[in-house]
Design goal:
This protein is an all-alpha fold and 210 residues long. The protein is built from ten helices and no strands. It is elongated.
């Protein structure tokens, strides 16, 4: 099935925003790349900023769904739950690698849209992480730690492959766009959860993801 005009515009915008930056990309560039009339961009998104906001919202709607899907397993143990959240996020970002690179870069910029995204989606993500950590510490499945700093570490691990693709390919000779990489990296995330967060005196810390 051929993509409709809206999908073509979004795909073209993601590629161009990544290659030329948001400011360096014009409405005409997007229209030419998508092979659609530039007026269609105004019709669907009103403006280039509206198109970027659509990409941000679309990404985080799917992202939070993956977090919630993992969070639904909390009754099976905090480590098990967190591993599933990490796996879901990693697979989601891998499947949307170009959009992920764009979004992670944009989130680092202080703007009104990003503040709204943080209030709407990233505070919700923090809520789920905190609930998992609280459950893990109360059950003595996790060692005591400060949630804010652990969230920083976890977020860094989840975002690094998509923010540093040039370093990975040219220096480490790792290809982040290959499924093998995503699967291997998820295993490393599990090792981090078990090695950094888990109190191995607890049997629950040895739970593995199926």
């Amino acid at each position: 099935m051929r993509k409709n005009s809206k999908e073509k515009i979004v795909s073209a915008a993601i590629m161009l925003f990544n290659a030329k930056g948001f400011s360096g990309t014009s409405i005409r560039d997007i229209g030419e790349k998508a092979k659609v009339n530039s007026s269609n961009i105004s019709y669907y998104f009103e403006s280039k900023h509206g198109l970027l906001e659509y990409c941000l919202t679309d990404f985080f709607e799917g992202y939070i769904k993956e977090v919630e899907r993992g969070f639904s397993l909390l009754e099976q143990g905090a480590a098990f739950c967190l591993k599933n959240i990490a796996k879901n996020i990693m697979n989601y970002q891998y499947k949307n690698i170009h959009l992920t690179r764009l979004i992670l870069r944009e989130v680092s910029i202080d703007s009104q849209v990003i503040r709204e995204i943080m209030t709407t989606y990233l505070m919700k993500e923090r809520y789920y992480f905190n609930k998992v950590f609280e459950r893990g510490m109360m059950a003595k499945e996790f060692r005591p730690f400060t949630s804010e700093y652990i969230i920083l570490q976890l977020k860094g691990l989840l975002s690094m492959p998509f923010l540093n693709t040039q370093y990975m390919t040219e220096v480490l000779h790792v290809l982040p766009n290959e499924k093998y990489f995503a699967d291997k990296y998820i295993e490393e995330l599990y090792y981090w959860i078990e090695g950094v967060l888990c109190d191995h005196k607890s049997e629950n810390a040895l739970l593995a993801v199926n």
